[in-house]
From TrEMBL:
Keywords: Cell shape. This is Cell shape-determining protein MreC. It comes from Sphingobacterium psychroaquaticum. The keyword tRNA processing does not apply. Transmembrane segments: none annotated.
Length: 277
């Protein structure tokens, strides 16, 4: 207590100055309209700036929740768009499947837990597994392209054979001629490019032409996989290879969509009876 009094007595001039200064400010503001308006405006600016900063911090902390909500909305939108595409045989000059397949596909969001792109055989690990309805053989896509095919599943994770794998082959179609080919990574070592093979050599193709999924494999029809950057690559007397630039950015994959074909078992059962016959 004695030390407190010594401190106050030593610096009493400063404390008295602060007290009189605050009283003077209050009196000036209360008794002068101009100063009162200026003070209120300044206070509003300071308080507004403070709350703006606080809100920006809150918004930053809530980014994860906002991102999750956006991905959920993207799934719903993709489902609606796919249903609309399949309900109309031709949209934007893309080869599409018949409208009987409306509502055939469902999409499950997953996060990429691991991803390789510089190996000869590349794989991904996703944070969804059999407990979430994921099964071997399902297709995996992003909002702008194809990623790969589910290879194995555990209860809460699944491994995906990437498009950047020598054994991955996906049926695709060219935008202009509507001919079918096979999308493979081929001999590429660059994750930005792939090859379209088995294109008849009499078909005229041009650089920049878009390439889409055909709907004859694990993926819905009409998903753009890339565009042609090199033509005239001869693979035999009757066929050409086309080099395309992929729309999927494999070096920056965070969220993906696993494609669930609701009619796949019916299709497989029918094809099995044909094979047995």
């Amino acid at each position: 207590m004695k030390n407190l009094w010594l401190f106050l007595s030593r610096y009493n001039a400063i404390f008295w100055f602060i007290i009189f200064f605050v009283v003077a400010i209050v009196l000036v503001v209360r008794n002068n309209s101009y100063q009162r308006a200026s003070f209120l405006n300044s206070s509003n600016v300071m308080v507004g700036s403070f709350y703006k900063q606080v809100n920006s911090w809150k918004s930053y902390l809530a980014l994860a929740d906002a991102n999750e909500k956006l991905t959920q909305e993207n799934v719903l939108l993709r489902q609606q768009v796919q249903n609309m595409i399949q309900a109309n045989p031709v949209v934007d000059s893309v080869h599409l499947v018949d409208s009987i397949e409306q509502g055939r596909y469902a999409f499950i969001i997953a996060n990429v837990a691991n991803n390789s792109i510089h190996q000869k055989s590349n794989y991904l690990t996703l944070d969804k597994g059999s407990a979430d309805g994921i099964e071997r053989g399902m297709g995996v896509i992003t909002s702008n392209g194809v990623v790969g095919i589910v290879l194995n599943t555990s209860a809460h994770f699944s491994s995906v054979q990437s498009l950047l794998h020598p054994d991955t082959k996906i049926s695709v179609t060219l935008d202009t001629s509507k001919v079918f080919g096979s999308l493979v990574w081929g001999g590429n070592i660059d994750p930005r490019f792939a090859m379209v093979r088995d294109i008849p050599n009499h078909i005229k193709v041009k650089k920049g032409e878009k390439v889409y999924t055909s709907g004859y494999s694990l993926f819905p029809a009409g998903i753009q996989v890339g565009h042609i950057v090199e033509t005239g690559i001869t693979s035999g007397e009757s066929f050409l290879d086309l080099k395309i630039k992929l729309t999927t950015n494999f070096s920056n994959l965070n969220h993906v969509y696993i494609v669930k074909d609701l009619l796949v078992k019916e299709k497989q059962e029918l094809e099995a009876t044909q094979d047995n016959g």
